[in-house]
């Protein structure tokens, strides 16, 4: 029995002798494919398949493949294997198609887990993080990923957070950073503030699971609401492709930009300005000059504040008037403030601007509270047309923007970004406080980075550990040179990850976060791959940062990510005792009967597919899978059967299809090599001109084109890598079925 191949294949085999020698140099084709042989092949080729260094060929078009960088916990899990296998597969595909591929890797290394681990173990967070990065990097390399390690970064490296601080100061200069006393979400376990987005629907912390408390603290905010309309409109940018339902998630988070927020100063009964301000929202900024009162919800920050006089001016069953007033920044008029539930509050707001002239609800409340209803002001007369409204609205908003008190279109529910964290392991905020100078003073750019001090042992006492580092805490004021103290809050880790994709492009730049020319050459990211759990917060903050950088001329596009591939989770089968819900390891379950039961007790057991977790005993260690099956098989198993966007049920029941395909590929190559060694005796001019050969040639030509087109479509458009694998399996079958027996 002999095998006949198409003319094209024969020609390539005859002309690529050197490549042929390399491909068969392992010398094991005549043996059966085993895990041992797979490992031998991997060891031989490991250092020959590394990603190339920066490709400077300007004739090639770029393709930036970015996978969300991991937190260095110390161990890869199967979710990591999935996302990085997907990104590496896409990088290989585009690299082999002649693209100048950017495929970097780094570490989202700041945050509470490292600090808590350091407290528990009595070591420094940096040492803990460094050893975790080392181990996870080795694991990624063992997975065979072609990352460009010369672009590697870690957010806890001063060479990185130097530029995070630089961007903070740029935002500060533009009036987009401010400090304000606010009622915040306090995690009593992790002893730190949480942004609203980090509190789940049960009012529990996203990380510790503790019931969140409300606490009044002075906090740093970034005015993300100034870019609300830009971020909302950006979702219609033609640059965005394949965002699917992520568009709706972002749109829902931002909300309809149908109003405006303003900051009103608070004054006591003696007209003394207080340190608090009040954020109000109105859908009718053109009538803000006609406001007569402000209502706040019971339990809101003003309702909770203890005032010097500690008394109310007036109280009844309908309202409670507070002993403070709000100053209308446009008229100078002092507005009374009432605690009441008799008005409707916009979504996400706990205060309401009362304008009786345009609202029946406001008129009724004003009448009940004996509030004088003011007549229209000269600069806010009756507006009779859409043009009048637009002109008046634009005038008021422009005034507010000049005063630095808001005036940007936004939704009522969207808040500014609270970035203060009362912990050690984060980017220091480059601000100092001087008693001689008025207000916070920014650290000069020339003195960046403000590095974290070394603290041998961290405490967990509910205040920033940086308060203990007195040598670091006490400094000099950059403005007057007098004694000053540093800001002890650190930044939310979402700030670090809001711009890392730009640093990858120019990781060794010592003068700027990145060069404008690099950003112009490689942005936007062509394909961004990560979990759906980051499709709201991280994506929103990264988009905000890029919109800001575009506004100051540092990046060419507003939108940073062109295409998104949101991969599903890897699910493991878990087993629980029916009734108690106690999780059991699989080995403690008896499957011999009609229903699974716990060994020893006979209690009924229910099974389900859940996210892999140690506590649920349903996790799989990647190192075990790599050892049992090898790199290529592991990567194929994680990609096969289901679309990348779907959850992957990890079960050995799905393995045989991939294992059999690899076996068929192995046999096909063995047959090919045996045929190649005897080409002159098998392939003759007479054979090449027979009708049977021509029919075979045409069939293989059609088959190749059909499967090649299908594979390409599923790589470049649909991102259905599982379908691409099935297409390649089909091509393998065509190659084997098309063998023609001749010269029997």
UniProtKB/TrEMBL annotation:
<feature type="domain" description="Aminoacyl-tRNA synthetase class Ia">
    <location>
        <begin position="414"/>
        <end position="573"/>
    </location>
</feature>
<feature type="domain" description="Leucyl-tRNA synthetase editing">
    <location>
        <begin position="324"/>
        <end position="378"/>
    </location>
</feature>
<keyword id="KW-0436">Ligase</keyword>
<keyword id="KW-0067">ATP-binding</keyword>
<comment type="similarity">
    <text>Belongs to the class-I aminoacyl-tRNA synthetase family.</text>
</comment>
<dbReference type="InterPro" id="IPR009008">
    <property type="entry name" value="Val/Leu/Ile-tRNA-synth_edit"/>
</dbReference>
<dbReference type="InterPro" id="IPR001412">
    <property type="entry name" value="aa-tRNA-synth_I_CS"/>
</dbReference>
<keyword id="KW-0648">Protein biosynthesis</keyword>
<dbReference type="GO" id="GO:0004823">
    <property type="term" value="F:leucine-tRNA ligase activity"/>
</dbReference>
<dbReference type="InterPro" id="IPR002300">
    <property type="entry name" value="aa-tRNA-synth_Ia"/>
</dbReference>
<feature type="domain" description="Aminoacyl-tRNA synthetase class Ia">
    <location>
        <begin position="54"/>
        <end position="235"/>
    </location>
</feature>
<protein>
    <recommendedName>
        <fullName>leucine--tRNA ligase</fullName>
        <ecNumber>6.1.1.4</ecNumber>
    </recommendedName>
</protein>
<dbReference type="GO" id="GO:0005524">
    <property type="term" value="F:ATP binding"/>
</dbReference>
<keyword id="KW-0547">Nucleotide-binding</keyword>
<dbReference type="InterPro" id="IPR014729">
    <property type="entry name" value="Rossmann-like_a/b/a_fold"/>
</dbReference>
<dbReference type="GO" id="GO:0032543">
    <property type="term" value="P:mitochondrial translation"/>
</dbReference>
<dbReference type="InterPro" id="IPR025709">
    <property type="entry name" value="Leu_tRNA-synth_edit"/>
</dbReference>
<dbReference type="GO" id="GO:0002161">
    <property type="term" value="F:aminoacyl-tRNA deacylase activity"/>
</dbReference>
<dbReference type="GO" id="GO:0005759">
    <property type="term" value="C:mitochondrial matrix"/>
</dbReference>
<dbReference type="InterPro" id="IPR002302">
    <property type="entry name" value="Leu-tRNA-ligase"/>
</dbReference>
<keyword id="KW-0030">Aminoacyl-tRNA synthetase</keyword>
<dbReference type="GO" id="GO:0006429">
    <property type="term" value="P:leucyl-tRNA aminoacylation"/>
</dbReference>
<dbReference type="Pfam" id="PF00133">
    <property type="entry name" value="tRNA-synt_1"/>
</dbReference>
<dbReference type="Pfam" id="PF13603">
    <property type="entry name" value="tRNA-synt_1_2"/>
</dbReference>
């Amino acid at each position: 029995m002999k095998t006949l191949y198409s003319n094209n294949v024969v020609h390539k085999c005859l002309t690529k002798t050197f490549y042929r020698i390399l491909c068969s140099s392992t010398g094991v084709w005549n043996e059966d494919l085993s895990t041992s042989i797979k490992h031998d092949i991997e060891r031989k080729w490991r250092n020959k398949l590394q990603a190339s260094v920066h490709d400077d060929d300007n004739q090639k078009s770029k393709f930036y493949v970015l996978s969300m960088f991991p937190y260095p916990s110390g161990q890869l899990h199967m979710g990591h294997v999935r996302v990085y296998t997907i990104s590496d597969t896409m990088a290989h595909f585009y690299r082999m198609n002649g693209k100048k591929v950017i495929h970097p890797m780094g570490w989202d290394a700041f945050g509470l887990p490292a600090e808590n681990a350091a407290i528990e173990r009595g070591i420094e967070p940096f040492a803990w993080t460094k050893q975790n990065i080392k181990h996870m990097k080795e694991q990624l390399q063992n997975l065979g990923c072609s990352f460009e390690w010369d672009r590697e970064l870690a957010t806890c490296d001063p060479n990185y957070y130097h530029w995070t601080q630089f961007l903070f100061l740029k935002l500060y200069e533009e009036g987009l950073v401010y400090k304000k006393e606010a009622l915040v979400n306090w995690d009593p376990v992790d002893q730190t503030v949480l942004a609203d987005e980090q509190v789940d629907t049960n009012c529990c912390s996203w990380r510790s699971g503790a019931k969140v408390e409300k606490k009044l603290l002075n906090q740093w905010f970034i005015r993300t609401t100034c870019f609300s309309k830009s971020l909302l409109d950006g979702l219609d940018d033609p640059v965005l492709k394949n965002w699917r339902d992520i568009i709706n998630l972002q749109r829902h988070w931002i909300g309809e930009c149908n109003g405006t927020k303003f900051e009103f100063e608070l004054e006591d009964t003696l007209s003394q300005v207080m340190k608090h301000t009040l954020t109000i929202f109105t859908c009718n900024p053109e009538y803000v000059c006609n406001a007569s009162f402000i209502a706040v919800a019971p339990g809101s920050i003003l309702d909770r504040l203890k005032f010097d006089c500690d008394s109310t001016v007036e109280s009844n069953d309908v309202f409670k008037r507070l002993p403070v007033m709000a100053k209308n920044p446009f008229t100078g008029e002092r507005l009374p403030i009432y605690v009441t539930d008799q008005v409707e509050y916009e979504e996400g707001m706990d205060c309401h601007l009362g304008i009786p002239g345009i609202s029946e609800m406001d008129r009724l409340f004003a009448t009940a509270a004996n509030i004088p209803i003011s007549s229209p002001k000269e600069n806010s007369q009756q507006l009779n047309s859409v043009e009048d409204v637009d002109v008046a609205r634009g005038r008021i908003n422009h005034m507010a923007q000049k005063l630095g008190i808001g005036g940007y279109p936004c939704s009522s529910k969207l808040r500014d970004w609270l970035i203060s964290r009362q912990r050690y392991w984060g980017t220091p905020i480059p601000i100092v406080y001087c008693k001689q100078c008025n207000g916070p003073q920014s650290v000069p750019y020339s003195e960046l980075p403000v590095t974290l001090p070394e603290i041998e042992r961290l405490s967990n006492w509910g205040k920033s550990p940086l308060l203990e580092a007195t040598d670091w805490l006490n400094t000099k004021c950059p403005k007057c040179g007098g004694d000053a103290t540093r800001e002890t809050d650190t930044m939310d880790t979402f700030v670090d990850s809001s711009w890392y994709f730009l640093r990858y492009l120019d990781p060794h730049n010592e003068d700027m976060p990145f060069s404008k020319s690099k950003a112009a050459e490689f942005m936007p990211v062509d394909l961004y791959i990560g979990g759906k759990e980051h499709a709201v917060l991280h994506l929103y903050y990264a988009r905000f940062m890029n919109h800001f950088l575009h506004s100051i001329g540092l990046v060419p596009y507003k939108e940073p990510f062109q295409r998104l591939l949101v991969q599903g989770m890897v699910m493991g089968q878990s087993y629980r005792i029916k009734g108690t819900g106690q999780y059991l390891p699989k080995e403690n379950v008896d499957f011999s009967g009609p229903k699974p039961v716990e060994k020893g007790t006979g209690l009924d057991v229910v099974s389900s597919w859940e996210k892999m977790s140690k506590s649920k005993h349903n996790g799989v260690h990647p190192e075990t899978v790599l050892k049992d099956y090898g790199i290529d098989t592991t990567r194929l198993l994680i990609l096969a059967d289901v679309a990348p966007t779907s959850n992957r049920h990890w079960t050995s029941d799905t393995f045989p299809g991939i294992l059999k395909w690899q076996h068929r590929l192995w046999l096909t190559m063995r047959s090919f090599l045996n045929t190649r060694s005897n080409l002159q005796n098998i392939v003759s001019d007479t054979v090449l001109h027979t009708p049977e050969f021509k029919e075979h040639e045409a069939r293989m030509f059609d088959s190749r084109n059909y499967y090649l087109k299908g594979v390409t479509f599923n790589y470049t458009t649909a991102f259905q890598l599982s379908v691409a694998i099935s297409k390649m399996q089909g091509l393998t079958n065509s190659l084997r079925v098309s063998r023609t027996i001749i010269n029997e």
